[in-house]
Design brief:
transmembrane; transmembrane helix; two-stranded antiparallel sheet; 884 residues; glycoprotein; chloride channel activity; Anoct_dimer; disordered N terminus
Amino acid sequence: DAGKPKNEQQLGDFSEEQQAVELFCNNESDDRKTYYLKIHAPWEVLATYADVLKIKVPFKASDIPKAREVPLEWLTQPFRLPDNIMRPEPDYFTAPFDKSKVDFFLIDDKDTFFPPSTRNRIVYYIMTRCPYYKEDRLEKDKTGIKRLLNNGTYTSAYPLHDCKYWKKAQDMQCESERYHLYKYWAGFLCFYKEQPLNLIKKYYGEKIGIYFAWLGFYTEMLFFAAVMGVICFVYGVLSYEDNITSKEICDPDIGGMIVMCPLCDKKCSYWKLNSTCLSSWQSHLFDNEGTVFFAMFMGIWVTLFLEFWKRRQARLEYEWDLVDFEEEQQQLQIRPEYELKCTGRRLNRITQEMEPYLPFPSKCARFCLSGATVLFWTCLIVACIMGVIAYRLAVYAAFASVMKDSPTSKIQLVGSLITPQLATSVTASCINFVIILILNFLYEHVAIWITDMEIPKTHLEYENKLTMKMFMFQFVNYYSSCFYVAFFKGKFVGYPGNYTYMFGKWSKLRNEECAPGGCLIELTTQLLIVMAGKQMVGNVQEALLPLLRNWWGSRKGRSHPESTYSRWEQDHDLQNFSQFGLFYEYLEMVIQFGFITLFVASFPLAPLLALFNNILEVRVDAWKFTTQFRRPVAAKARNIGAWEEILNVVAILSVVTNAFIVAFTSDMIPRLVYLYAYHTGSKATMRGYIDNSLSFYNISQIPDANLPEAGENPSWFNNSTITTCRYRDYRYPPGHEKQYTHTMQFWHILAAKLAFIIIMEVRNLHNIMYTAHMILVKLWHEHFLNLDVKTQFSAHMMTVPLFPLLSQHVVFVVKFFVAWLIPDVPAEVKARIKRERFLVQEYLHNYEVEKLKMQLSQSFCLSTETASLLPSSPSKHQVLSECI
């Protein structure tokens, strides 16, 4: 415990030095095996290290008036907390502590001058660097509490909670901050209330406080994305009746008369298009005109989120005295592990002091080994994904063979919904999710080992390296399956008679095809299973497992009264909050941020699911910190660290992925091209789109290896009357001089897709523009003179290479304009920072002047006493007056 001893009578006749290390050293636990040592830092120790760490403390009450009341502020009263909870401390102007100027600061009580979070941080700083070897020995690696914990000398080291969480402390001097946090923050019925961030910071430290501030702000911003997503989904539901495409698929006279080619070799039979009626309706819910709007909205939303967070973060930096936070002196202090393992010394050019360093050859070797390990695990993920893809290709034929007579239709409620495509997609997604969890569990330990092996110099460098390794792995692990469905499935299929196989024809694993309505609904299924599954598993791990472990660990002691079941024993029975605890909390939220931004065009309800999860996440995390975990050692942090850069990268990448999803995964662009250039009749309508998007193939030309086995074909199929089958592509029909080659409509659609992507991108995508330009030039020289009036749509498409110069990439222009328009630091905060710096200089100057006056006065008094024994000198008063 870094605070003041709670039982002064147990101190006995110990001296102050003994009290610093010998409090309660003989207290036994209930099992008579565990002994507790309570550490207390006296004032001199706290003052000395507060000076070393440059901890800011108050020197003057703030004279800046409070913000004016906002109109209609009464509307927010139900969401507010009491002022004593939201602002547990008055506002002060602060300055770095200087032990030589103690009387400059507002010190009313030395025992409470430094808050508990500062006291336990100072004590932990000392303990991590305290040697325990004898001076005449060379065992200098015996340093710090971490080594003692690793070798089992101590089982744990932790600060104490101030009281029980469900009732206030009996000592009236105790502030019972844990109780207030549980009552106003950790209760699940407080989900609609604001968070007491100042109290969190005071009790747990700035690093944990900034995490909850970010999580709360992220949850607030999700509300707007969720509302817009719900609106887009409702639009899809209400536009059901206007969906001509689905009506044609379900129509027995249209979709029921279209015979489709087999989707796999041997085990798959010919099938009618109207069998996909239900999936076409499902696709329309997410693949409609609102999809494009929502993708563009999310591109702007993510910019607003990041920019407004910077402003919120700047305000917290000022309010929590982190503006002049010197990382070199606090967060960037050399790790004890680095000092022990690096035996070489060299001169620091800045400090002109000798410091440990890692030789360059050793650093290179460790870096290469680390990179090779990360590359191996990344390749392992890719191999697992390839295995899941092979499973999808192999099992689809089995499902198609089993379900050819529709045995699942007998299942109540959901029987009619089960198709070979759905069964394959759901089972593959579940298997992929299990693989993700297994690989995550294994790689966590590997990433920590790799980072330790590199021997980072500072705490911040250690966290940043671990963050990058874990996120890169998690990015590939969680998103690779979604990338496959979004950008690879159905893109390299071939056509009847010339199908493409995954590992060559010998593997007999024919690449998957998309349904007539596109692959977007399957991407939605994949995203829903992985995202929702991760959230459910995460909540169980965070809430249920600590509860069960604590219940089992405290089963003996919880029946004893407080007098025998002491505060340190109660806290010892709680779960330890490791140094990576906050890291995993950030990682979970950043992965979720990727789900709702990278693939949100396929699932507009993803922000709504994330909102519900985060409302629960805030209270679950608060409940864990106050009831299930030991009190963590306080740490300072002025921002969310490397996670901010990762969020920026994900935000930029999200615009690219959503543009490609709308262009290549969704069926939106082909429908628009048909509507404006290839529609039948004089009026622009979607009638006939399904027939237009399917090509013909002569059944007699299909190789035997691709034909269904005997007995696989349905009873309605007759070779003599059905001579052609349809497949999803834009190719010339059999008998045409260019049979089975791409039609002009295919090139028009491709050019429109590339144009859409260019409009959505931030920088000039030279490769895509060049490709689009070459395609259009080819169309101009080879085909334009032979086109009819309708296909002169390509003449208008010739402006695509020039259009980006005019549009300047609409979404990203808006994105960066908004980023430029919103300053990172509010003007009010800038003014307050300047005001505080001015006051610090002014008060320090006045303090030094007053101190000089006192010294001169004392010197004059001594001179007067001496002069009384000597003849008087009339010039002394004049000299003193001039000096003052």
